Amino acid sequence: MGHERRIPTDNSLAPPGIADDGDAMAFCTTCAFGAACTAEGYDKNALRELHCLVEHTGIYHEGDYVFRKNTPFTAIYAMRAGMVKTCLVDERGREHVLGFFLPGEMIGLNAIYPERYPCDAIALDTVTLCQFSFPAMVTLSTRMPTLQQQLFKLMSKDIGNASLLAGDHSADERLAAFLIDLGARYAARGFSATRFRLSMSRTDIANYLHLAAETVSRVLRRLQNQNLIHVSGREVEIVDPAGMNALARCILQP
Amino acid sequence: MGHERRIPTDNSLAPPGIADDGDAMAFCTTCAFGAACTAEGYDKNALRELHCLVEHTGIYHEGDYVFRKNTPFTAIYAMRAGMVKTCLVDERGREHVLGFFLPGEMIGLNAIYPERYPCDAIALDTVTLCQFSFPAMVTLSTRMPTLQQQLFKLMSKDIGNASLLAGDHSADERLAAFLIDLGARYAARGFSATRFRLSMSRTDIANYLHLAAETVSRVLRRLQNQNLIHVSGREVEIVDPAGMNALARCILQP
DNA sequence: CGAAACGTTGAAAGCTCTCAATTATGGTGG
DNA sequence: CCACCATAATTGAGAGCTTTCAACGTTTCG
């Protein structure tokens, strides 16, 4: 394994339900709601209220659905461990991957407007997450400005990220940007930015980057031959971060 | 002209400042904040407060900047008339168009998280808009749940829209989806869905759809030869909406 | 009227895709 | 523990779509 999970995934024995304070506080430091949860000077009751609308869900295994397209929107989810992809299948049967989610990131924010989940969310490995009732969050956020701001921030961030893939860039640039971005997000959670495991298949990567799976294979090989990365199965090491950044810059920079 | 502007653009003589109620109310029916502004049963004071944080800006002419990349984020804008593009220029000097904005739509929501505008916003023709101080909106929205919900909705919508261009589709499908989408958005504001004027250049369209300008020309010609549309300069008529929808479906449907 | 920007059209090159075959990996059951 | 199967990943060759480069026609506006 390229990195160690800091968040224990062995809470399978604990029944789903209200998070106990100890667990919740420990997790909150890496969670997307960290800023709201751990905000200083906060009324302890408010903090308790926020924790009370969280449910730790059971464990999801590879292939399990966190939610399905067109299901009524009820909750958003914070990743605790593992990786989830969001995707949808078009009428021609082709799968489009919208995003990959790492520990600490939020899923479901794009369901608020349509009031239904606009895509499927599928676990790529063993996943645990926190479920937040959205109606409850909305209510609470009117009394808790920090929470409201955090929601605004998270959503605004998502709007910006979406345009990452927008440009018409070469396959090499796309793959470089993908790996650099993944490394940066891992680093933000305390993992290694240069060594990690790809939980998703080459096909998933291809469907995310809008390339053919064969092209993903070829480009990974090409980057390795240029001594930019080292790939072994799903283990990846970024050998030359500067070189990779140079490739990815035109995508990540703007 | 393919459609009539319902919103007068001749307020250039009025000094920027607080919107008078008459104007504001008239506009609100087509504005993105309509739901919040015109919500029934609302405290008249709250409504007045919302209107008070709006400023009608002066007129922008073609090429004028509404805001510039990296400027500190202070306000979001609601389009009243005309068209604006948001774009950024990469280090190679190539322009990427992120979006086009029609009357009633909001600009600047992607600046909340970075706290700076992440792109330029440029008027494509004669533009008028309303400026909302964001800090003031945030404060007000804690007392005005409808406003908060409206903000959530608008942002969530933007997250979803961004994935419209994501797929790897043919140039024909992209152009068809672009025109159908534009028509639908015009229709949502009371204009014709099948006859309108493209305020942006072929190059802008190309930079938005990630095609070469020459390809845009060729595809428009191709669609016209198939009797799907009629193009004359920047005037467009969708002659066969069903056929165009069939082409665009795989992009717009999911 | 003339310059400059915009738009169109043609031909050749390049990148990625598709199709096909081969190799590697991981899980299952004997 | 190993054989076996299904899935995933890799590699090669040819086709297709879009891009690039270049030239020409058109519109706009000083």
UniProtKB/TrEMBL annotation, chains A, B:
Gene3D superfamilies noted in UniProt: Jelly Rolls, Winged helix-like DNA-binding domain superfamily/Winged helix DNA-binding domain
Q: Does the keyword S-adenosyl-L-methionine apply?
A: no
Q: Where in the cell is it found?
A: Cytoplasm
Which residue intervals define the domain Cyclic nucleotide-binding in the entry? 60-113
Q: Which UniProt keywords apply?
A: Activator, Allosteric enzyme, c-di-GMP, DNA-binding, Repressor, Transcription, Transcription regulation, Virulence
- Ranges where the HTH crp-type domain occurs: 169-242
What Pfam family is a match, any one?
Answer: cNMP_binding
Instruction: Tell me the subunit arrangement.
Output: Homodimer.
| Protein's recorded name | CRP-like protein Clp
- Please give the organism: Tahibacter amnicola
